[in-house]
Amino acid sequence: MITVFDNLDTLYKKAADTFVELSEKAIQKHDKFVVALSGGSSPKAIFNLLATEEYSQKINWDKIYFFWVDERWVSLNDEKSNAKMTFEALFNKVPVSKDHIFPMYKDGIEPEDYAKEYEQDIKNILGEEGIFDFILLGMGDDGHTASLFPGEAILEEKEKWVDAYYLKPQEMFRITLTAPIINKAENILVVAFGESKKHALNEVLNGEYNPKLYPLQLIERKEGFQFFTDEKAKG
User: Fold this and answer.
1) What is the pLDDT of residues 61-113, one digit of tens each?
2) pTM, full prediction
3) For residues 233 and 235, what is the distance between their CA atoms, to the nearest angstrom?
4) Quick check: 167 and 181 in contact, CB under 8 A?
């Protein structure tokens, strides 16, 4: 469940290998591989690997559908956009079908309304069950994952698969998958490393159950759940 790596290059390679392996299994099982991706520096390193010839040629890109775990409500050409980063690191370099990519942003619509539209996009691909084959998550220094931040009302959401809300500390809207849809996933990989994650990681893994303070605890550690970290974070 929890794998501690000696160095980040090995961690990134194992994450990329995991993506390839799960894609092969899912495509063999039901002719598609439906994933939700995170933003940030560690996913970017993984995407860079997947874009290399070594990995890219192993992947049936036409069979993959890409969603996002969460997003800042900014345009797709904004430097803060997770989608922009993913296009630059991965999608622009591999033969993925552009109509299989579902960015968590759309011009001319309010974020709350787009959250409903995005949920319908997921249902159009996954049906009413909404079971992703693979979800890639990170963890912030405060124990948040996706846009599930400590103390926010969204942590109580039980019905919606996607929601949007104004995050006051950041003075911006966020749109995110919720804990219920994330927990449905067949496979979940959390990648979190570095000294700054040590306290939150210890609380998430070993502390009392307090998801209002450490939201990653909302994500169930069941079969198909993996956590990749390093010595600095695990301690």
Assistant:
1) 999 999 999 999 999 999 999 999 999 999 999 999 999 999 999 999 999 99
2) 0.96
3) 6
4) no
200 neighbors 141 (Cβ within 8 angstroms)? yes
Distance of alpha carbon 179 from alpha carbon 203, whole angstroms: 18
Q: What type of residue is 195?
A: E
Measure Cα distances from 90 to 43, 82, 130, 173 in Å.
10, 12, 25, 25
* Strands in 28-181 per DSSP E: 33-37, 64-68, 70-72, 134-138, 162-167, 172-177
Q: Is the dihedral of CA 13, 14, 16, 17 positive or negative?
A: positive
Residue spans per domain, the chain:
2-234
Read off φ and ψ for residue 173, nearest 5 degrees: -80, 145
Tokens of 213: 């303070």
CB proximity list for 126: less than 8 A, separation 6 or greater: 34, 132
Give residue-wise pLDDT tens across range 7-52. 999 999 999 999 999 999 999 999 999 999 998 888 999 999 999 9
Residue 125 vs residues 118, 136, 174: alpha-carbon distances, Å: 11, 18, 23
Topology of the domain comprising 2-234: Rossmann fold (3.40.50)
With CA atoms as reference, report the closest residue to 218 among 151, 145, 147, 153.
145
Alpha-carbon distances of 146 from 126, 127, 133, 137, 191, rounded to whole Å: 20, 22, 17, 7, 12
